[in-house]
Amino acid sequence: MISDRKLEHLLICKNYDVEFKDKTTGFEDIELIHNALPEVDKNEIDLSTSVFGKKLDSPLFITAITGGHPAAKEINEQLAIVSEENNIALGVGSQRAACEHPELEDTYSVVRENAPDCLLIGNIGAPQLHLANKAVEILDADILAIHLNPLQESIQPEGDLDARGYLESISEITDIVDIPVMAKETGCGISAETAKQLVDAGVSFIDIEGAGGTSWAAVETYRSEDRYLGELFWDWGIPTAVSTAEVASAVEVPIISSGGIRNGLEAAKAIALGADSVGMALPFLKKSVSQDELNQFIHYFNDSLRIAMFLVGANTIEELKQSRLVISGKTKQWLDERGINTKNYSRR
Ligand code: FNR
């Protein structure tokens, strides 16, 4: 049953090591160029950003985590309260369970109740065209995310392995809902080519969710009797820094960089690479034990982002986007091979 699976995911992610083992996000290959004369007042730095007409106090998104199990209700309530307090955007986990089992609806509706003014993002799978409007209604969502998770489906014992027709279904979802539709991966990243296909299908927002953070092969390995396949594909995917640069080079729609981002310094690098915002899931699940922990984590994130902006002389997120950076190592190798000129970043 889906609801039991949701609880297992929460418990595994909270209690086991579910992050990539050897592959990293690639942000260690990115250096913003220090400005010894920033000519900026750090206290005046503006982290605000606007997403589809809604002004947010920080470019930080809490990306899809949960819902669909009574235990998830409390987590969603905590996340909603801090999102409202800090005026940041919040995504919920897959809403399929609640669309099919009305008794689970309150595990999602609790979010809008506690975050009346927040930018909220609903969540369904690509084939779930028939659930799209219901998902929007249950959450009172501002944006609907469609999750892409072929790796998880491959390793999960009950996985859906026929991915034919997903692009068509995504295109139809963008036609039938009257809010913007986002496509999001779940930890393997999105390539330039896939980003173009998604935008051609009508998607108006991409959350890249690259490799280097939570590995869904890892999560499903802990649920499988046979660990062989999960172990083999544990580190599969496009590193987050690479996927961010690929998607930014390919499409004009706003981009969230995510998957293994853990602080404001990495966020600054992601934004200078071309992202408009950044997202995190696992750290918010782990901090959801108390409001204080969540608030402190957001405070550290915002302050580390502000320091990085101060050190490159950026007053606003738009100025940070224009900051120069140097790309080295494996990340440069990857981008070179893919025809993305890294000098466009270092000599802006
Ligand atoms: C997730 N994630 C996720 N994504 C999604 O689109 N629908 C979902 O239902 C879930 N469920 C979920 C549960 C839990 C417990 C976690 C930790 C994550 C994936 C999430 O949004 C994100 O793409 C990845 O976790 C990678 O980001 P982090 O965790 O490395 O910051």
Automatic annotation (TrEMBL):
Pfam families: FMN_dh (PF01070). Its EC number is 5.3.3.2. Its cofactor is Mg(2+); FMN; NADPH. It catalyses: isopentenyl diphosphate = dimethylallyl diphosphate. Keywords: Cytoplasm, Flavoprotein, FMN, Isomerase, Isoprene biosynthesis, Magnesium, Metal-binding, NADP. CDD domains: IDI-2_FMN (cd02811). One of its GO terms (biological process) is isoprenoid biosynthetic process. Mg(2+) binds at E153. It is found in: Cytoplasm. Coiled coil: none annotated. Residues 166-325 form the FMN-dependent dehydrogenase domain. GO terms for cellular component: cytoplasm. Substrate binds at R5, K6, S94, Q95, R96, Q152. FMN binds at T63, A64, I65, T66, S94, N123, K184, T214, G260, I261, R262, A281, L282. InterPro entries: Aldolase_TIM (IPR013785), FMN-dep_DH (IPR000262), IPdP_isomerase (IPR011179). One of its GO terms (molecular function) is oxidoreductase activity. It is an enzyme of class 5 (isomerase). Involved in the biosynthesis of isoprenoids. Catalyzes the 1,3-allylic rearrangement of the homoallylic substrate isopentenyl (IPP) to its allylic isomer, dimethylallyl diphosphate (DMAPP). Belongs to the IPP isomerase type 2 family. Homooctamer. Dimer of tetramers. This is Isopentenyl-diphosphate delta-isomerase. It comes from Methanobrevibacter millerae. The gene is fni.
